[in-house]
Design goal:
With 271 residues, this protein is mainly alpha-helical. It contains 13 helices and no strands. α1 packs across α12, α3 packs parallel to α7 and α9 packs antiparallel against α12. The protein is globular and about 70 Å long.
Amino acid sequence: MLETRSKISTALYWAFVWGCGLMVLAFMIGPILLALLMSFNSGTTLRFPPEGFSLRWYEMLFDPIASEPIHTAAKNSIEVALSTVAVVTLITAPAAWALARAPKRFAGSVEPVLLAPLVLPSLVYALAALLALSLLGLGPSFLAVLIGHAAVFAPLMFRTVLGLAQRMNPALEEASATLGASRARTFLRISLPGILPGILAGAFLVFMQSLDNVSVTLFLGDPGRTMLPLRLFAMLEESLDGRVAAVSGVLILAAALLLVTLQRFGGRDAR
C-alpha cells in the first residue's frame, strides 16, 4: 500500500514539474514562433494564420529606400546600445572586481545598493530622470538616454562579473605581485582573463536590454532621433505593417547568433 502511494506521489510530482515546465516553455517560445510565422506572411498586413508563404516583408525591410526610417531607427538604437555597453564595461567591471576584494561587511552593505536598479521599474526611473532633467534646465538627448540605459542596466553586468571575481583565487594575484608585477599588470594579465566571461555575458545582456528598451528611451530620448522600439510601435499603431514581424525575425536571429557566439568563445563561466 505504501509503495503504491509512493509511486502515485512520484508520478504526480513529475507530472506537475513537467506540466509547469512545458507551460513556461510554451509561454516563452510560443510568441517567438508566432512572430516568425507572421514574418513570412504573403498578405498585406500582419495576421495569423498567414495567408501564404512569402519573403516580401523581408525584401521591403532591406530596401534602403522603402525602409529608410526603420534603418535610421535601427542605427540609432545600435549606437545607443553599443555606447551603453562601453560605458557600463568601463565602470562596472572594475567596480565589481574591487568590491569582490573589499571586506565582506562593506561589500554586503554596498552590493544591494548597486543592484537596486534591477528592482526599480524602468518606467519609474525614466519619469524621475525626466523630472530631474527638467529641474536642471536640461531636456531629452542622446546623452540622457545613454546615462539612463547605463544606470538601469549596469547591474546586469555587475552581477555576472562579481560572481566570477568572488570565485577567483586571490593567491594568484598575490603571487603576481610577489613576482614584481604592478597592480595594473596584475589586473590585465591575471584578473581580467578571469572575469572576461562575466564581462562578455554582461555585455550581451546589456546590449539586448538597451536595444529593446522602451520606457527610458521614450522619456529621455530626443524627439528628432527615433529609436527602433518606438518606430515599431508607431508602425503597429498606423498600419499593422508586416515589416514589424520581419524586424522581429531579424532580431531573433541576431540574438540567437550572439548567444551561440558567447557560448562558443565565452567559456563555461559565461554560459
